[in-house]
Amino acid sequence: MDNDRRISISVIMPVKNSHKYIYKSLDSLLIQKNDFSELIIIGDNADTNHLENIERYLNLNMKNKFYQIIKNESRINGPGMSRNIGVNHAKSSYIAFLDDDDIWPNNYLALRKNFIKKNNSKFSASPYEYIDESFNKNNIVNSKKSVLKQEDFLFQNPIGNSTVIINKKLLLKVGGYSKLFKRNDYATWLRVSRLVNCNYCRDCKNVKILRRTNSLTSNKFRLIRYQFLAFREANFSIFVSIFLTLSLIIFIIKRIAIKLSNIFKKIT
In CATH, which superfamily holds the domain spanning 9-217? Predict the structure, then answer.
């Protein structure tokens, strides 16, 4: 950790299409008060009117805080590319990611900053819960471990993107955020976990992560190719990457078989 014990946090939020959830996400950020230094919004091929509406909202509600809205005008679009633009513009020592349809709980950043100081952590995450489009709970994800090591990332992504707070220098050291179109968050944490462990703040209230029906991650079998690419990005050999990907397929099939078996037992 930097010699300065003060922790400054830049919050990075890519936005794409206009939807009704973004203002709930922004509200959950604004109630964090003085626990973040700046907000960087990146328009990932976003509609100009949408960005202008966000700017008007922030002008009304974001007093005495620095924010900037940047258009991703690169031919390479996607949340990974946009997050990298945000990282390169960030002035703080730490980066927090908040997706534009996720919601942080009250006092979230204050608790996380204390956790980072206590554990001298450069890479940390916290529990989250999936919610549907009516904001009903679907599933809670809370690790039983206080420290997640590289092996904990091999067959699944144990952390939610909007729960990650990472040291900017560390993120740049691994080449920044992955530019994969899908599984870019997983590919990034897989690379980071090869250098440092992830400290898990188990006592935080859950971050709410919206799982929409048209989500990029809604079908796990469609993500197998990107899983393989994530292993390659993390500098695993092609043979190890194939082995890990095949192992993951078997793992998914087993989980599906267990679910079907449980359903069958209930109806019989």
Answer: Spore Coat Polysaccharide Biosynthesis Protein SpsA; Chain A (3.90.550.10)
